[in-house]
Amino acid sequence: MTLINTNPCFHALIPAAGSGSRMGSELPKQYIDLLGRPVIRHTLDALLAVESLSRIWVVLAPDDIHWPRYKWPADSRITVLHCGGATRAESVANALQEVALHADAQTWMLVHDAARACVSPRLVARMIETLADDPVGGLLAVPVADTLKRAGDDGRVAQTIPRAGMWQAQTPQMFRLAMLRDALAAHPEVTDEAGAIEACGLSPRLIASDATNFKVTFPDDLAMAARLLGSAAESTK
Ligand code: C5P
Fold first, then answer.
1. Would you identify the CATH topology of the domain 10-235?
2. Longest alpha-carbon distance in the chain
3. Bridge partners of 141?
4. Residue 25: what pLDDT?
């Protein structure tokens, strides 16, 4: 397979069209306050700090009323798309159709959850360096440390799953624009980009990350994210 581009371009795509029902909040979780700013602002700032990202696409729900209420960084790399869909995969697929009108088919797309606000710019930069010449692409992930249990309908353990070789998928997930667009069109049922690429018979590369790149999902996660971002800000003073 010869996919290597001598001058590759790297774009980030942030799906932010979810309602965040697990957070139990009226406000979609990407807009919930975290240290005085919406969650997605921290995510955006982290990606803006990655110099090799030449564009950052933010994908909102078509009826999003929250984005205009905030002040956003005046950075020409940011473009907002109002094409979110019913699922995360649909939001990403819709956005890729629009991005394809402006970008080369071989552009590397780093799809990153709006709700992973503690992502490290250094880790994203390392991921880009590691995967820039990869024929498939890959994702940040963490080796599973705990023993895994499958629950039965009665709330009791139905099965213990061996954890050897198991990884927990995170984002960014980095694949070339045309490959990812075609994979998501063929496999819209997936819950992450890597799943669509795998369903096409390819093997994304796992890039070791850590637990700090977690997804703000439940109310308790906000306090953890505030602690992490607060101590990161302290250490740069
Ligand atoms: O709901 P979940 O935590 O899996 O969402 C992951 C990311 O996908 C979030 O940033 C969310 O806003 C986004 N999403 C989306 N469109 C949807 C559902 C989720 O862009 N329909």
1. Spore Coat Polysaccharide Biosynthesis Protein SpsA; Chain A (3.90.550)
2. 55
3. 169, 208
4. 73
